[in-house]
Amino acid sequence: MQWRGKRVLVTGGASFLGSHLVDKLVELNANVRVADDFSSGKAENLTKNMDCIEILKGDLKDVCFAELVMKDVDLVFHLAASHGGRGYIDMHPAECCSNMVLDGTVFESAFKAGVDRICFASSACVYPTDLQSKDATRRESLLKEDMANPFSRGNALADGEYGWAKLMGEMTLRAYHNEYGVKCSSCRIFTAYGERENETHAIMAFIAKTFVKMDPYVIWGTGEQDRNFTYVSDIIEGFLLAMEKITDGTPVNIGTSEHIKIKEAAERIFEFTGFRPRKILFDTSKPEGVFSRAADTSRAKKILGWKPRVSFDDGLKRTIDWYY
Question: What DSSP letter does each residue of 177-203 carry, written as one string?
Fold first, then answer.
């Protein structure tokens, strides 16, 4: 795809992932518009390109605002959502459900405006929780896209209201393709981390705790739960490739296949920051999410030619350097 001169809308463009996507699109010489209500996104995230992008503030659940931001747009990256780390997902179910209204309004407005393509930021939370349970036979299992399917028995047990909303967003977008031929794609993001992320997410929370030298150092859950942490630049590359190469709503995992225990992630942060607490407390009263989660990336490799480039250690060092 030739990005130069493309008129691109990034919803949630002031967010952690959204702002990095904006930076990359500007680098590719696209004409970028950001739509954000700044409830979680920050204007400072856009400082680098403030003079060469258009920023519209408003609520995308408002049909009038959604229709306004779609005018004269070629491509839409839909990242806007009510979201946060595990604590937010578990404690704000109503806000997470509001994403279904948001997504429906954005997709309908984009369709009416004749937008050429839509790329939707979905989530690994769409996958059935029973496939990520505390089971030794599953510790090394990888989640494949076909494992999350609302039309298949046993494959629609998403991770809470947030996961259900994301799965319904995917289904809605694909329905627009099936009925109206809308060109679209859905990227299932696995545990993103990197510069500009906030402290509601595990990696940034761990780094913040070392910065203030928390001791005893508190980790939510047992610390035995694992994730596959995916660095921000790899995710942005996945978004761009999905926009270019997928047009039928096919979902694709944007993640890594590496299982890293939460307590192991904390240990690496201790090593890289030089701070090690005398005592670590594992608070099992706090939400900890599924036991084991990592992505099968074979579809991304086949369709997109994508694979993660940044190792966990390298991404962690970059993130720590930025925070400190």
Answer: HHHH--EEEEEEE-SEE-TT--TTSHH
CB 249 within 8 A of CB 186: yes
Q: What is the residue type of 11?
A: T
Residues 146 and 209: beta-carbon distance below 8 Å: no
Read off the pLDDT band of 10 (50, 70, 90).
very high
132-179 tens-digit pLDDT: 887 644 555 899 999 998 777 766 678 888 899 999 999 999 999 999
Helix, strand or coil, per DSSP, at residue 321: helix
Q: pLDDT tens digit string along 255-288?
A: 999 999 999 999 999 999 999 999 999 999 998 8
List, in order, residues 6 or more apart from 33 with CB less than 8 Å away.
7, 8, 9, 10, 13, 53, 54, 55, 56, 69, 73
* Residue reference for tokens 């920051």: 273
Give the HSE-up count for residue 208: Cα atoms under 13 Å, Cβ half-sphere. 14
